[in-house]
Design goal:
This protein has 398 residues and is an alpha/beta fold. The protein is 41% helix and 15% strand. The protein has two domains: 145 residues, P-loop containing nucleotide triphosphate hydrolases (Rossmann fold, 3-Layer(aba) Sandwich); 246 residues, no CATH class. The chain has 15 helices and 13 strands. The protein has a five-stranded parallel beta sheet with strand order 2-3-4-1-5. It has a five-stranded mixed beta sheet with strand order 9-10-11-12-13, with helices on one face. A three-stranded antiparallel beta sheet has the order 6-8-7. It is globular.
């Protein structure tokens, strides 16, 4: 136990509070059981440590931070830890990467039943199943999904330029005023192009090669470790998943032909659909359908995108600017909105009512002229022209 307290103090002392994401303020940390899920590399651990340092300081006492693959848990249980922590006056237990502890859900349920005055906050993979875990915690846990940096957060995180976030409706109705405020402070186009290359993950240090290498490591870890653990993928088949991801990255936006994909990978169609579902849950791809309400479990998606622009830049051998634009739009809108593939008119339908066409500065309204609530998201623009809005504005949604 003393070892955990010493590690806690050391880790908190080394945690910087220079830049704290606003996600911090959206989480109800005082609830008894809070879960923060997200893909590897988006900053869950940093956010948790920053909260602890802000709220409790660097010394362990009322709070204790533990990484769940610690050697401590080779001969101690989580339940034992919680009991001793509670006896010593502990109030808030923070468990990082809880999915690395096999019986996490059963023991968490017992902890909150035995000590209702103790709070537990945990982080876990985006693949973590709270509803279908050994002990169903869905009615007890307040769950959050954490994304990588938006364009707005990138400006704050890397450039020291702070702007508020805006709702989609505010962006659609007040685009002129928002663009005025942004352009007074910075030149968004150059910064946006940089964001598309290196801005999504909060670990860019100025070296593109190392950054993309770290993203590759994230992808490999998700496929080799998390998908075998959570999705039951046989280790021998992880190469098929990587081959599928590389194939998709070079053929995007991919209008799905399951038979062709099945033939290329030499696996059956049912397995292809299962793998696509796993990759979507793991935040490696985004799957779009023409009607989200009628999607069945094994229905093929209508379009597939790599999850975020930086991952696409890492995987793709010949980048298509149109694909990169659409990848960005789907990634940013999917965080808090429902995005459907608009097969007939426009590129995407958002929340079932707003149509977006994505393109370059010269894009016209020809394809969406007669569609109500339709807009163009155009690259290489600083200011809107009517319902043609700068593409980068979508990066101010969170």
């Amino acid at each position: 136990m003393e070892t955990l307290y010493n590690k806690h103090r050391l880790l908190m002392s080394n945690t910087s509070l220079d830049i704290v994401r606003e996600t911090m303020d959206t989480i109800s940390w005082d609830r008894q059981l809070v879960g923060i899920r997200g893909s590897r590399g988006v900053g869950k651990t940093t956010l948790m440590r920053q909260y602890i340092k802000q709220k409790y300081g660097t010394r362990a006492g009322e709070a204790l931070y533990c990484v769940m693959d610690s050697i401590y848990f080779t001969n101690h249980t989580l339940l034992d830890l919680a009991e001793r922590f509670h006896q010593m006056g502990g109030k808030h237990l923070f468990l990082d990467e809880v999915h690395k502890y096999p019986t996490w859900s059963r023991e968490l349920k017992e902890i909150i039943d035995l000590w209702p005055d103790m709070k537990v906050t945990f982080t876990g993979s985006s693949l973590l199943q709270i509803l279908n875990a050994d002990a169903d915690l869905s009615r007890r846990v307040l769950s959050y999904n954490m994304a990588g940096l938006s364009f707005r957060e990138y400006l704050h995180f890397y450039k020291g330029i702070k702007f508020p976030s805006y709702s989609l409706q505010e962006i659609l109705t007040d685009a002129d005023a928002i663009c005025d405020d942004v352009c007074k402070v910075c030149s968004p186009l150059a910064l946006f192009n940089e964001y598309l290359r290196v801005g999504y993950y909060p670990f860019y240090d100025g070296n593109d090669v190392e950054y993309y290498s770290r993203i590759e490591n994230v992808i490999n870890f998700i496929i080799d470790q998390e998908m075998t653990l959570f999705c039951g993928v046989e280790p021998a088949y992880t190469r098929k998943l990587k081959a599928m991801l590389l194939y998709l990255s070079d053929n995007l936006p991919y209008e799905v032909n399951i038979a062709k994909l099945s033939s290329y990978l030499e696996i059956n169609k049912t397995t292809v659909l299962s793998y696509l579902s796993f990759m979507y849950r793991a935040e490696l791809v985004n799957l779009l359908y023409t009607d989200n309400k009628s999607v069945t479990k094994m229905q093929k998606p209508d379009k597939i995108y790599i999850h975020n622009p930086n991952m696409l830049c890492t995987l793709c051998t010949q980048m298509n600017i149109g694909t990169l634009r659409e990848c960005f739009v789907v990634n940013q809108l999917s965080h808090n909105h429902t995005v459907e593939y608009s097969k007939a008119n426009g590129d995407f339908k958002v929340d079932g009512k707003i149509t977006f066409e994505v393109g370059g500065k010269e894009k016209t309204f020809e394809q969406i002229a007669d569609i109500p609530d339709s807009y163009i998201l155009a690259d290489s623009m600083e200011y809107p022209i009517g319902k043609k809005l700068p593409l980068w504005l979508v990066g101010f949604l969170y």
